[in-house]
Design goal:
heterodimer, A: mainly beta, four-stranded antiparallel β-sheet, about 40% strand, B: alpha+beta, 1 helix
Chain lengths: ~210, ~50
């Protein structure tokens, strides 16, 4: 697909010229390599047609659970605005798939809060790697749930820090080394509670 | 008096039924392990920060 360059003219391109340029460039050639095509299909990259699967929006609890997730979703996505119940406790919000507490998880993360920025690695799947706080934290997590023998998720989040009151920007990549399709997701407060309320809650979307 | 266990807020994504319940035995055991691991992680991180 090329870039259409319009000649400079006092009146600019006409609507017909713009329409022609857009339509002629609109459809890139289809992927003919079968391996790439399979990857695109497995990861639902060609559709991005998200469906709301379920949401949790009202109740304060130590664990938020999406259970009996229907099969067939190549991608899952969590959109959340949540608060940690207490201000003094230090805890991170972690994620667990299929009620599996084994050591199949690993993560790398970075967060930027000003001074200093920080990066590290761990053996759990995180939704917040900063110590999240009692004002609203927002994040989006996308999970590749294809047929590959490993699940991969990445999280972008704006995390409110309970201790300093500062905002930390989290970017987290998690892997879950299992071929089993995800049918359950737990969000774990690790000694604290998760609050929805005015923060919004958390919604799970899927794309087939 | 027995202490209440932590709460699980669950949605069954097939039936859309929302459930609020206490952790069952298996979940509560794992919860205690998770909390201990979180505290150990925090202590380790505090030591790292102190040594920098």
């Amino acid at each position: 697909m090329g870039i259409q360059v319009f000649p400079i003219a006092a009146s600019g391109p006409t609507l017909a010229e713009i329409t022609s340029a857009i339509t002629s460039n609109a459809a890139p050639a289809s992927v003919t390599n079968s391996s790439i095509a399979t990857q695109v299909a497995n990861n639902s990259l060609s559709t991005e047609n998200w469906t709301l699967i379920g949401s949790l929006q009202t109740t304060t609890a130590a664990t938020y659970t999406f259970s009996s997730i229907p099969s067939g979703y190549k991608k899952l996505m969590l959109i959340a605005g949540l608060i940690k119940a207490s201000s003094g406790n230090v805890a991170k919000l972690t994620m667990r798939f299929n009620n599996d507490s084994s050591s199949l998880y690993s993560s790398v993360f970075m967060y930027a809060s000003g001074s200093p920025d920080y990066y590290s690695e761990d053996t759990s799947a995180f939704l917040t790697r900063s110590n999240w706080g009692n004002t609203t934290s927002t994040f989006k997590t996308e999970i590749l749930n294809g047929s590959n023998p490993m699940k991969f998720s990445y999280t972008q989040g704006v995390i409110a820090n309970s201790n300093s009151g500062a905002i930390a920007y989290n970017f987290i990549m998690n892997t879950y080394k299992s071929a089993t399709e995800i049918n359950r997701i737990d969000l774990l407060a690790n000694g604290d509670n998760i609050v929805s309320g005015t923060a919004g809650g958390v919604a799970l979307y899927g794309a087939k | 008096m027995a202490q209440n266990r932590p709460i699980v807020y669950e949605i069954n994504c097939t039936t859309n039924e929302e459930i609020v319940r206490e952790m069952n035995d298996e979940e509560y055991t794992q919860h205690l392990i998770d909390v201990a691991a979180n505290e150990a992680r925090q202590a380790e991180q505090a030591l790292e920060n102190a040594s920098e």
